Amino acid sequence: MNSERLPRRAQRNRWAFLGFAAATSMAGALLAATPALTITVGEFELQPRTGGQSVELWIANTGDAPLETRGLNLRIQIGDGTGADGAPGLVSVDAVTGTPWEGRVAAELPVVSEPQYWDLRLFCSLFDENEVTILEADSMTRLAQLNFDTTGWSSGSWSLRLAGMSKALGDPHTGGTDYTTLDGQFAPTVVNGMVSIVPEPTEWGLMGMGPAIAWVLWHRRRLRQAS
């Protein structure tokens, strides 16, 4: 009797093993097919004392699955976020025009819109689970356009952050940029950047002449004192 049961038991074990292997393979495939979002902010050069200057931010989904998102929390900080370091002003942010949100949301909702710190939020319908905005796999997508005004600034460089915020003065808005999905928040990998005001060539020339002019004035003063 035992000799008859052994082959059947072995066969059951074999099918159990094959079923476990198939389930593990399917689970592995599902885990492998995931979105992978990256925002590389970049380094931008602005002209001095000029309004209406724009730069663009892009987001890459390098994963092998799309991300179905229902909302975007876009948080941007220039310098220390308070203006104490004399950073130029971020006049406006456009995260709709030319982005996957165009035609799906009417406008941005600026929770905080200060010159050096923005907390901008976009949402599809919160009541319809089928209402989503998709970031396709293996794609580059426009994230937003930032509009600067450098009136009053002639030079300087400041950090431009979408993550690792450090806003001071007791303001709790220090979270980074992320997306709202049906499964919760999805935070992209963010490589923060810089924004700089680059003096025009004529200004560089004048700046270079400064020490020479100072030396001439000092030399003339010495000659007058000697005479």
Describe this structure in words.
The chain has helices at residues 2-32, 201-226; strands at residues 37-40, 43-46, 53-61, 67-78, 89-94, 109-114, 117-123, 133-135, 139-149, 156-161, 178-181, 184-186, 189-191, 193-197. It is α+β, with helices and mostly antiparallel strands. The chain folds into two domains: 1-32; 34-205, Immunoglobulin-like (Sandwich), CATH 2.60.40. Strands 2, 4, 6, 7, 8, 10, 11, 12 and 14 form a nine-stranded mixed β-sheet that branches. The protein has a five-stranded mixed β-sheet with strand order 5-9-3-1-13, with no helix packed on it. The longest helix is centred in the N-terminal third of the chain and has 31 residues, at 2-32. The radius of gyration is 28 Å and the shape is elongated. The N and C termini lie far apart (128 Å).
